[in-house]
Amino acid sequence: MTLSVRRGLATLGRTATIVGRLLGIRDSPVPDEWTHVTKIDPERGKDLPLCFPLYLQHTSAVEVGGSTDVTDANTEETLELVANRPRPAIQEPSGVKQITERTRSLASFMAIPEVLNGDVESLIGTLGAGVEYLDEELAPEAVESAAGWLPPWLADPLTEAAVDWILASAAFEAYIVMNPDSAAARESGVTADDLLDPRTAKRRAMAAERHLDSEIVYLEYSGTFGGTEATAILEAISEGVSRPQIWYGGGLGNREDARAVLDAGADAVVVGNVFHEIADEQRSTVRRALTALDHDADRAAIASWIDDAVDVSASSAASYLSTNLDVARPTERAREYLITTIATALALEAVRAELPADPDLAAVADAVARADPPVLDELDGVVDRDWARGLLVAALADSLGIETDRPVQHLAAPIAHS
């Protein structure tokens, strides 16, 4: 493909984009209807609840990414678990080598971060390294895999087109990082001197919209709630931009804070830490329940124990569900999901007790199928029943030291390892 042809195609693309905007047509991969995004960190130790699809049915989408200890392997593992179970997943890479053919096939699209108030490396250097990786490694490997028989004079322009396609199908995520003590700030070079007032944030968001073509403007407080400062910034940004979706993330754990940022102009809230905290709390709670309850305890007995032993209203599960304004009675729903989780753990422990010595994977699968754990009924209509049963088989097998092909090490499975 000659330089003149590429320039002509680029001009045609820009013209089509401008015409589309005049006609009110959005070409962003980010749906307007997303109002709640759950951010899942692939880092080991950032676990998922055992019955995580029950919770994820109440979010609009899942964003997989983190700032530290993220690799291509743990990103693939996490996407294998959560993509379309039951909500679409997107990948937010923090390093270029986290993007693989497998992550691209699992994720609906990539959200490429661009930090507007960080150092030059976080805005230009990282993107440049990413484009180089796509151009010199990922795209050539994909073309070689799909059409290795092509001669270079055809393969080379096809590789260039593949790079353009990958970038065109991604969403560019313009970050404003406002917690200088966070990992995101350290990775992007944001210090206390780089924090933005509302007018400056508005101007940078406008530049991101007009110059960078960012599909998302993300105000990030990383584990702390921005309060009135954040709502003032959101109001300013929403006055300045019209095309990008405005996301807010940081410290959300109740309905009031979520409503405040949405009312201030955010299109979607992003919750992350509190979702992983559900797993941490449930691991402890379920282990107590396994000691206190018989393996054949019914839902009524489990509910009675919970009412005596757990303050569900103060749980991370209730906090997480309350951040979605469309979820009615989040505390009651969190209680039901905890009952299901405990019932499932009891059923798996009962299966373990009935297994022969040194069982293989087939024996575990047969035993789980006979037990028909209650979570399978709860998950009907949320995820595929056979997939859910396979996940429970893998969790139990892993606890017995039996190798499986499911990445269950990311689950907070409350069954004791042998």
UniProtKB/TrEMBL annotation:
Under catalytic activity, the entry for this protein gives: sn-glycerol 1-phosphate + (2E,6E,10E)-geranylgeranyl diphosphate = sn-3-O-(geranylgeranyl)glycerol 1-phosphate + diphosphate
Q: Name the InterPro entries on file.
A: GGGP/HepGP_synthase_I, GGGP/HepGP_synthase_sf, GGGP_HepGP_synthase
Enzyme Commission code(s) on record: 2.5.1.41
Q: Which PANTHER family match?
A: HEPTAPRENYLGLYCERYL PHOSPHATE SYNTHASE (PTHR40029:SF2), PTHR40029
Q: Which GO terms describe its molecular function?
A: heptaprenylglyceryl phosphate synthase activity; metal ion binding; phosphoglycerol geranylgeranyltransferase activity
Name its GO BP terms in alphabetical order: glycerophospholipid biosynthetic process
Q: Which UniProt keywords apply?
A: Lipid biosynthesis, Lipid metabolism, Magnesium, Metal-binding, Phospholipid biosynthesis, Phospholipid metabolism, Transferase
- The organism encoding this protein is Halococcoides cellulosivorans
What name goes with this protein?
phosphoglycerol geranylgeranyltransferase
UniProt superkingdom: Archaea
